[in-house]
Structures are given as C-alpha cells and as structure tokens.
C-alpha cells in the first residue's frame, strides 16, 4: 500500500503533479482483445476538464491522452496500458502567493509536515488534476464492461436538490446542461446559483448520485472487501469528498426493519430496493445506487487569513482559477471510479 | 484480495460462521514487546456480545477469546497472533425455518447464488457474529497505540438524535447507559424507544459517531489510500452499515467555501475543524471524527413474505433472537475497526 | 506484506510457534463446493510429521488438524477455512540450554535483534514446525485441482543422487521407502548414509525434485509474477532452502542456444523441455519441473561453540530431537507449496 | 496481483513493449528529500543498453529516461515518480519473419494462447527490453540506500567460471572489461569465448553473482516473505533466469551440519558465512550473496524449425539483433532488482 494504486486485478496506478511535465498512469489487468473507442475516452476527458462551461474553472487544459503501450492494432493485448497526459500550459504560472503559505483547507500544511518537502506549484500531487488519470482508467473499464450502465449526475448543489427518486429521471438529459443534472428545473436553479456564487468569489458544495444498472448477481468479496465498502473507498479517495451512502443510506438509520426490508419477488428480484442492490456485500442484481458528498472547493477569490511557513498569519487573496462548483466536473470521476471497482470485481469473481 | 483480510502492515484475517465450531482470526504485524492487558480485551468483547442488556438480543454468547500464538510471557513477540472464540451454545438450534428460505434483506439469496452452496445455520459467514473477531483485533490495536483516544457512541436511534456537538459531550458517560449514548437525556429517550420497538417485534436503525483524538500529523497515503478512505471502507465493511461521513460530511455539501474553510492558528492547528482532522487524505493533528449509519436489523419478529428456494413466496415468522437495535453493540466494532486502521497507518508511516 | 500470508486469491495465512498452544491457519479463497477428503489431508500431515520412520527426528507429534469453519456438510463453502493443529506434548520440555544462547545457524540471534524479544521455546516461530500449516493448505489446494499431478521426491542426499531423468522414474515408488526416493538403488544408499550420519550425531543436506503434470497452457502473470518466480519464492520460503532451479536450471547456464531451444511439434508441444514447462513466465502445457536445495539441519548432537546473550562464547551440546536429514519430510511441504501456487494462478487466470 | 508491479512499500510498476511508443514505469514509495544524481541513473541505463560493446547485441537504443513527476528541484517529494523511455528507432523494423511464427523457446506461443492476441513486433511485452524500466527503479533505490553496497558481476559464461571466492575479487574491476567479470584472466577467456559463439551465430548462458554489503540486521519478514525468498522471486522474474541460490546454495545440499553451521563471534558476526547473510529469512548483518543462472538467448543466427500459427513446421532464420551472451548486460538488472528488494524491506522494517 504505497498509496497510488487502486484495485487488485484491474489495477490503476497514477502519477503526476498539477504543474509537472505530465500526469499519467498504468492500467494493469484490462482484459485482452477489447477494441478501444478512443473518442469515447477523450469524451470522458472532456467532461472532466476545466474550462468546459461558464460555471466551472476557466483554466485551460487540453487533457489529451497519449497511450504508450498495451494496445496493438486498436485492441488491448492484456499487457499494461501506459499513458500520459501532458501538462501543456501550467508551467509559466506564478506561485509566489502560494510558495510560503499553507492555504486553508488545502493539503499544503500536511504535505510539508509529512514529507518534509512540498511541490508548491499549484496543489502538486494533492491537486484534483490527478483525477484526470482516473478518468482514463474508468473510460477503459467502461469499455471492458459494455453491458453495465453507469450513470452519475449532480443531485444537489448547496440547498438545491432534485426531489424525485432516480427512477423518475431521464439519464439522457444529464449532459443537456452544464450542471449535469437530469432534472431540468433543478438544473436551471443550480446553474443560476453557481453563477451567483461565482460572482461572490465563493464556492459551493454538492452531491453526486450514481446509478449502476444491469449488474449480475455475485459481485463482492465478504467480509472486508464488500462491494459497497470498495465503492465507498473509491469515492472517498476523490478530492473533496466528505461522505458516501448507498441504498437507503443515512435515511435508513431512521427506519424500522418492517419498513426497510426488501421483499423478494419469485424471480429473486426485490419489490423495493432500499438495500441499494447489495446484500451482505454482494450484488443481488438490482440497481446499485449511491450518493457522494463534495465539500466546497477551498480556493476562494476572497481574502483569507493564511498561515505561512514562518508561523505568521498573513492575508492571502485567492488568484488564478476559480472553480465555483466542482460537482459537475466530478460526475465523470465518480463514474470512472465506479467502473474500475466493477471491472476489478468482474475479474475477481470471473463474471466475463 | 480474497476478502477476509484487512490492513497492510497491521493486518487481520478472520474466519468463522455464526454456528460453526468457532470464530477466530490472525493478527499479523502487531509490534513486539507490547504487554497485553487481557482483561481489556475481554472487556471489549463484553461490550459487543449479545445478551448484555435489556435492549439487545438475548442470545447467550460467552465470547471468550483463546490466544494460541504470538504472545510469550504476556508480551507480543512480533509473530502472528492466532486466536479462537468457540461457539458454545449455538449448535442445538433449529434452522428448519431458514433452511429453504431466503430471508428478506439478508444475504441468504446472494450467498447461494454466488457460491452455489449455503451454510444455512444462522447467517453463516454473513452473520454479524463475525465482528467478534474484529473486536479482538481492535482491542490489540488500541493497546499498540496507547496515546490515541478513540471514543465511539450512539448519536441517533431512529429520529432521536443528540443535538449537541461532540465537544459538549462527556465521553466517560458512554458506558453509563445501555444505549451507549453520552447525552443522558437522549439516552433515556432512545432506550424507551428501543423497548417500544422491541414490543412491536420490530427493529430500528441508528448512527454511531466516532471521535479519534491525539492523532499525530502525517497519517495517510494519498492518493487512493487516503486516511478517511480507508476509515470509510473499514466502517462500510461492518454489517448493516449504509453510510459514512467525516468532518462536515453531507452537511458540508451544502456549504460555501468561505464558511467551510478551516483557518489556521500559528501553531498549525485550525480554528474550526470541518475538515474532520484530515486534509488531502493525511491527518493534520486535529480531532478525526466521523459518523456511520446502520440500517435496522433485518430479522423482525413479525410475519414476512419470503422467497423459498423453489421460487415460492411463503410466509415466514421471525424466530429466536430479536435484536431490536444493533447500534449500541456496534459501538465497540466501530472503535475496533478505527483502531486497526490507525495501527496500520502508524506502521506504514513509521510513527512509533 | 506483514509476512505470514501467501497467495493472492488462494491465500494462506499461518500462525503458531513450535511450543505454543497450537499452530494453525486460514485458507482464504478456496473454491466452494469441493467435497473434502479428510483422510487425504491427514495423510499429507503424516508424511510431514516427525517420528514417521527410523531416519527422521523421533519427536512425537500427532499433528491432527481440526477444521473450524468454511466447510459445511463436508463441502467447502467459499468462506475462509480456519484450522488448528494443537501442540500436544511440547510443553514440558526443557529449554534451559537454549534460553540464553543463540544457536549457530538458527534464527535465534536475528529474531532477538529484530523483535527485541524471543520465544525461546524451541525455534518459536522460526521452527519448521510452522510448515505443518502449509501442508494443510496444500492438501486442500490439491483437492481443488484434481486433474493436476504433483509429485515431489528426494533426488539427492549429500553426494548421493539419482542419475536418471525424472521421466525414467516410477513415481508410485516414492512412498515405498522412508527416504521418498523413487529410484530404489539410490534410496537404499541414501537410507544407509542417513543412518550413518545419525550415528555421528550429524546432519546432512539434500535436494527435492518436483514434477507437475497436466498443467494447462496460460498460468502465470508476466512480468513480475511469472509462474516460476512465484514457485521459486514459495520454495525459498520453506525452512532450510538455499536454492531453486527449474527446467535446465544452473546447467542451462552452460549451454548454447542451439542446444537449449525447445523445438515445437505441430500441436504446440515441444520436442525437448529444457524450458521446464514455462515460457516467459507462463505455463506452456509441458511438464513443470524444478529442484530445491536444502541445507543440513543446524541442530547437531555434537558440542558446538555458541554465543550467549551476554556476549560470551560457550560450549553447547545439542539435545533432544535429532533430525539427521530433513529432506524426506520436506517432500510433502514442497508439494504443498507448489499446489498452493497453482491454485492461486488457477483462480487468477480463471482456468476452472 | 495483476503482474506488472513489484514491491509493497517501495513499489515499481512497469509498462511497455519492445517496439511500442515507449517503455516506462512508476516508482511509488521512494522516500522524500533524496537528491537524485541523474547521471548515475543514466549510467546504469548505459550498462544495460544494447550496443555498448563488441560482445553484445548491436541494436541501437538510446534509452534516455524522462522523469515526469515525483521530483521537485532535483529532490524526490515522496509522490510517485513517473518516467518514460521512448523507443526511438524500433518502429521501422521488419517483423514479417516473426508475425506468423512461434519462435522456439520464446514466449510467442504462450502469449497468443493466453491472451488470444499477440503484439508480434519483437517480443512485445515479453522482450527483455522491459528490464530497462527496472534499471531506473533500481538506480533510484540505490540512491535511497547510499550506505548499502551492491556489486553484481559475471561469475561464469558457459563452462568458464571464476574459481575464487568473491572475497578475493576486486569489485572495482567489474567495469574494466566488457564481460563485467572482475577476475581478469577469466574475463579474457570469457570474452574470447563469446566472440567465438557470436561467429557461430549461436548464444551462450552464464551466471551472475551478486554481493550485498553493509546490510543492517533485521531485514526480512518471516515466514513467507523471507528476505531471500523475495530476492529469489525478484531474480527469477528477470528474463532468461533459470535458477537462484544464496549462501551455500546447491553446494549446501551436499554438506553436513557440522561443516555448514556458521559459528558466532562475540559481536554477533559469524566466522564463516555459508548462510549467505540471512538466517530464518532475516538479514544477520553479514554479506548477502547469491548466484543467478541465465539460459542462452533463444534467438540464434542459425536456421531453426519453427511452428507457425497454421500448425506447420517451417524453417526460420534468425535475423536482426544477435545477442550472443546476455549475461554482461544482466549485471545491472540483477543489481537493480536487489536494490529494490532492499529498499522495500528498509521501508517495511523502518530502518532509515
């Protein structure tokens, strides 16, 4: 456990700082013979990249993936897939305002204390830019599992939330608005609210809901590597995530057993699905759904008190990229992590 | 990842079914030279065991741990600690009502589909009885980390919750009532409510809050093995858990950056602690706190429709042990998993 | 990597000291639905146990395995198989001659330096008694892979060696003599020689050859987890092993490519098999064969100079059990480790 | 265990085919604050690269390493070190003679059977070119452990071997001849012999001996992850390796205990060192030494019978790069793997 790998048989290892030469990674264990659709991979990258709409950071990143191995004549070969994502225009930036300061609610302080050294260019390794590599892994995992449907969407921004069950939503509308909220009314409110937040130089948190459909029975490894435990770890490893719940989640903690139990139909499906598609850590064939909480981005365009490395509190003004709400861009990352978890269990439980 | 191990350098592997000969496990990686207090270990067992109070299951289990290795003249030797917990009085029970039925919201159905065979005596491996082995591991982890304070308590049962921040609670009162709620008023309400639920033959969910104090800066392995990601996985691997949040959690998703950021003091501590003691996946020295959601126990003492293995829906009446609210007994399990996660990172990050 | 587990998907974790309460282990990942033949398991134990013949140690050990979980109505259930092997008559022994001494070429010195504490009863954890647990794991792995034939035998003792290729040997004769050498002439010589060594109060090394037949094409995970690399690690983890070679081995280092290359037949088999059934780390369907070197047992019944824990050199006389040649008893251990390696790759490469 | 990673806390993952865009890897877990000497890294690369002398393959490879992350202002930061080694002039080669053929004693056949697809450009992933990435990892591991001395050298080529103990050799002469043999007389004979082999269009095997000095007591994790077991696996994972022995090795199997035991001195060192610096899987502070057997390279410049993918035996003439003896170039690879094993145990056993 050196920290930069995820998964057992479908395994991604990532590298890269926000302002170094390049990000990248290695995907080890992808099944051979998969004809990759590179446009789909690049499409997922475009969903994550900054600058894609008026409500996210305007930092320009091209995020073009270059594959270096593991693919021959368009198909995966079963050998590790190495890839890089060059950092194109980050190098000339000015970090003088960060260099000696530990920005509040960033990882600057703990990195310096832990490692005794800090790459102060942007967030370095702790930057969410690292997730670009995850999106590559997820895009390939999705193509390894074409029958599985994974749909994530923004379910709340601040206090604005979709007040419908996911079954009443049309997932084809997720990409129809910059918020990635399939409920158009909520989407409009969220978009307006994010714009207001941006004007204030502030940021706002939100939640992403993810629904995984068409999952076979039997994925999951009790007792410690339960399917939802691994999904939870995957989500909690994404920058800014503060919470994870699946099925009934925290609401389930308020319920009675007589209300919560999912009665079976004769075909093994269940009438309700408060379990969230997983029993005892093993998929039961029903929809898996979960919700992920994102805190607001720590970098705000307001003056804040900040500790410097001399032990002084100084005033620091946020500069550069302002990402008022990271949640729309987190949607493809949530999907990517979910896809990689599923790919891993497909291999572990040999359902392929 | 065969499923029954947790941790990298401090690593527990467990075995055992609810009604087999014995449960047990192996703790690999405990530091040598630790003088074990066996009464403390047995005390943790007694906190988890059934039959300890009027509001939990009356099943009788002695849960006496027998250590078989790794300890010499009362001290750990650095070699693996093997232990067993004999199942004393489970064997004579009658399982005829379970044998051919897939109980709703239990793992019966998925185990049979996944493995093609099911140990129908009680929940078999999926029974929460497995967590007894975890409590042993946690009790030893706690003794390996004497300076760390880990306190979990029941923070809600159904709709009843403690409406104070944890800083206003007196942890020494946790064990003063059978609910393990340090707020006496809330505790009384919860206890009364659980008794009512028990009369109804029903069950109720709840939440456990855990606070970890005196943690050094630097525990955690970005980017995938963030400290809170591993804590989350640990908690989600406990039976009946549906959600995990740390620091501001799901509330944080409603907040603005200007509200959420934890400003530093000159000594590196922070004025607020919405981060929950972890930045970028690394402990920052502040209190770590998190909340875990437990669904209601699936076994209720009411008649329920149940699928049998012939594809028929039959009426099944709950029998035997009725555990109206598992949450008080979950408190030591939450602590145990937290202690083992911390022990693992202490070794990984060589803070000992 | 806490040290006491082996394998990824078929995974054994062992515990136990030579003179503690019990040895034991957990086998995690065995396929469900395997009808275990317990007599076969006990038979493998009897092949390893001391006191089985005139040429091995006369220490009495019953080595009866007690299974505690993972088996229901005689079949594996897919859940972890916990087992113990009680230490029956070791407790009353006298260790006063060992307690303060670091026996030459034993692990006494390094254990005390590494852990700061030593269980001086016998070899503690470093005793070869630990391999009893491996034999249990191997016996189960063998039953999981009934089609695979694994035959190990003693190929040399001291300077006496079988001067025939394994193809000319009748494996059914391995158990016909106490040396476990299928070549009767060599066996007689070896037996006589070991008896002579015993009289001298000395010990002697030897080699075990192992042949694995009926292996499918495709087992192995390049580039680091090559099949022979894992086999090598498995063998080198056995007490007293000093070397491992497969196929042409060290002889291959003297050969020319034109001699060494294995030319194909039209069905993919090869005319020669200097490769030893593995190409590029992947099984090619031909026989896998390898050879393992065991040094002589360090405990001799002669006076030797020994370091004590006060830094003095003292004379120490070997006492108690004298095992003049451990190699015959190593045969089932080599088979057990080989079986577990194969079981792991069968699961990893889903050939089942 | 997806196959392309090695190590637990100091962990390398590699990617790349012999004729793809680039090779590369990620080194995860290197200590922070290490001031890297890039010339030393490139020097190790030059020791491995083809075309370095008259006795190795004349294939031209520049093997220039480009670091992409994990290093800031010349120092390691504790974050993963990503690197690539572009394949510069491999792309224009002609593979028509390989494309449909399974070369004898190459991995062509097993890769195609295992994965159902084969990258036929050179050996693809099974090419020894992959070891270039390992040399990068080893060069960094060496710099993380400046006090440890690792010296590997060619100890035999065919039947020519150094007939002295390593203690009588001057390691500073290893690089004084193209064979990397510190014994000048043997070196001259070996060189002449390799030239003769080259003229014949043939290849020859050999052995590499490696000596590790200045190792602290206490590295190693019994019982499965013994230090020599991991070293053995590391060596056996190198292309063309057929055997590994440490300390007395296979010779030890011919010895008596009274000859083999290493008697202690009063300071804990031993008078002899047949144990090879490791007792019970744990380093004892004495020199660690081991020997690795390499078979002859399979590609010969002679006509050979070959199986094609239609099931026909055809005549195939070796073409292109002829590497008559790979052993001199294997020296830095052996050192690199040894350095990474040691780095891993330094972190696991926190000796830093």
Instruction: Give the low-pLDDT segments of chain A.
Output: none
Query: Going across the major beta sheet of chain A, what is the strand order?
Result: 1-2-3-7-4
Structural class designation of chain A: alpha+beta
CATH architecture of chain A: 4-Layer Sandwich
Largest interface: C-D, 105 and 105 residues
What's the CATH C level of chain A? Alpha Beta
The gyration radius over C-alpha positions of chain A equals: 21 Å
Q: End-to-end distance of chain A, in Å?
A: 28 Å
CATH topology of chain A: Chorismate synthase, AroC fold
Number of helices of chain A: 9
What's the structural domain tally of chain A?
Answer: 1
The CATH superfamily name of chain A is Chorismate synthase AroC
Q: Mean of the pLDDT scores of chain A?
A: 94
Work out the oligomeric state of the chains in this entry. homotetramer
Major pleated sheet of chain A: 5 strands, antiparallel
Helix content of chain A: 25-40%
Number of strands of chain A: 17
Strand content of chain A: 15-25%
Shape of chain A: globular
Order of helices and strands of chain A: EEEHEEEEHEHHEEHEHEHHEEEEEH
Task: Please provide a written account of the structure.
The structure is a homotetramer of 352-residue chains. Chain A has 352 residues and is of the alpha+beta class. The first copy, chain A, has one domain: Chorismate synthase, AroC fold, CATH 3.60.150.10. The first copy, chain A, contains nine helices and 17 strands. In chain A, a hairpin with a 4-residue loop joins strand 16 and strand 17. Chains A, B, C, D: Its EC number is 4.2.3.5.
